[in-house]
Amino acid sequence: MPQPLQGYRIVDFTHVLSGPIATNFLRLLGAEVIKVESAAGDTMRNYGGIQYADGMGPSFASVNSGKKSIVLDLKRDADVAVARELIAGADVVTENFRPGVMDRLGLGYEACKALNPRIVFCSISGYGQRGELRHQPAIDQIIQSTSGMMSLSGEPGTPPIRIGYPAVDTYSGLLAAFAIVAALLQRGRDGRAQQVDVAMYDAALVLMISMAGPHLLTGKRPAKQGNRGYSMSPTADTFPTAAGHLTLGAVRQDQFERLCRVIGREDLIADPRFQDRGTRVAHGEALQHEVRQALAGRGAAEWAELLNAAGVPAGEVRELPEALAQPHLDDRRLLLSIAAGDQALRVLNAGFCYEHDGPGLDAPPPALGQHTAEILAGLGRTPEQIAAFLHREDTQARS
C-alpha cells in the first residue's frame, strides 16, 4: 500500500532549514521531493563541522534524506526552462527566498500557475509575502527576538535568552508542511491552484498561543517564569535532587497530596498555607523550600520512578543523547537507520505513528546533483543532451 503522499511531486527551491524541514515531512509521508540546488549546493551541506558521505554536514543529512538533487543555474535561461518543465508536472512548489526573488527569476506564483493551473505554491519567509515588514531579512534568532519569544525564556529578572535550538525554523517548516497538505486536500475538491504564504514571525506567535492567547483576551503582560509550569503551581517546577534534577507536574489537589506522601511530608497537606492551589501559589517560595529539602534525599531517577508509580507526573532532566537512547523509541519507530555508502545514518522520523503505511524512508540524502541525469531523462532529454548538460555543469563547478 502507498504512503499518504506517494505519487505527489514537490519541486523544492528551499535551502538551509525551515524550507527543507517542510519538505522533509512531505518526503517522510511518501512524496517525491526534487531539490533544486545551485552548483555550490545548499549552504547547509557544509554546516556542523562533521562531514558524512559526499561531504554532507549532519544538519543537511538530518532533513534531506530521500530527496533527489538536481543542479540548476537559475540565472541561465536554459536552466530556468528545465525548472519550468519540472513545475509543469509537479503538485507543489516550495521556496524560501526573500519576497520577490522567485518573481524576478520568472518562477513566482503567477508564472507557476500559468504553467500549472493546479499548482500549490508555498513560500516561507521571515515576515511573509505581504505587509510592511515583508522585505526585512530574518533568521530564526531574529524572529525569536522580534516576536517576544526571547522575552519569555529564563528566570525573572534575567536578560533575554533564545530557546536552545532553532524553534522558529522548525515550527515554520512543520506549519508549512501542514498548510501544503491542507491545500492539496482543498485542490482535490476545487481543482484550483493555491498560494501558501508562511511567515516565520506569524509562526512564532502561533507557537506561543498558550501565552499570546491569554494576553489577547485579558491584556495581562506575560512574565518570565523560569522552569515553572504553565499552571504556575509551585509543585510544577524543576528541583535539584541528590543526583540530577527532577521536574514535577503536581498540579491538581490529589497530585499534590500524593507528592507529599511519597516524599514523606504528609504534614504539608494539612498546612493552611498549602491547603489549595490559590494558597500554594501565594506561598510558593515556602512550599518549594520544603519540597527541595525533601527531594535532596534521593536521586532524580529514583524519585521519578516512585512518583510516577503513585500517579504524580515526574521526570528526570536528561541530556539530549540520553533522551534519544531510550528503548521506548524503538517501539515508536522514531529513529530511522539509512544506509549511505559504508555508513549508517540515523535520522528522525515524522514523530507520529499510523496503523499502516505510515511515515518513513530508506534512502540517504542526495549528493549534490546526484539525480540531475535521472530528472532530465524524465523530462524527455536524450542521452546526448543530458551528457552536454552535465559537462557544462562540471565546467561551472571547476570555474
TrEMBL record:
Residues that span the membrane, as ranges: none
GO molecular-function term, one example from the UniProt record: transferase activity
SUPFAM superfamilies assigned: CoA-transferase family III (CaiB/BaiF)
Gene3D superfamilies per UniProt: Crotonobetainyl-coa:carnitine coa-transferase, domain 1, formyl-coa transferase, domain 3
InterPro entries the record matches: CoA-transferase_III_domain, CoA-Trfase_fam_III, CoA-Trfase_III_dom3_sf, CoA-Trfase_III_dom_1_sf
Presence of the UniProt keyword Ion transport in the record: no
Protein's name according to its UniProt entry: CoA transferase
Organism field: Pigmentiphaga daeguensis
Taxonomic lineage of the native organism: Bacteria, Pseudomonadati, Pseudomonadota, Betaproteobacteria, Burkholderiales
